[in-house]
Amino acid sequence: MRTRPLNIATIGRAAGFVLVAAAIVATAISFHRDDGRRNAPVNSPAIQSDPLARELARCQAIGMAAQTDGSCEAAWAENRRRFFTYRPAPSAASTPPANPRLAPTSKDQ
Question: Can you tell me the distance from the alpha carbon of 56 to that of 64, in angstroms, rounded to the nearest whole number?
Answer without folding.
Answer: 13
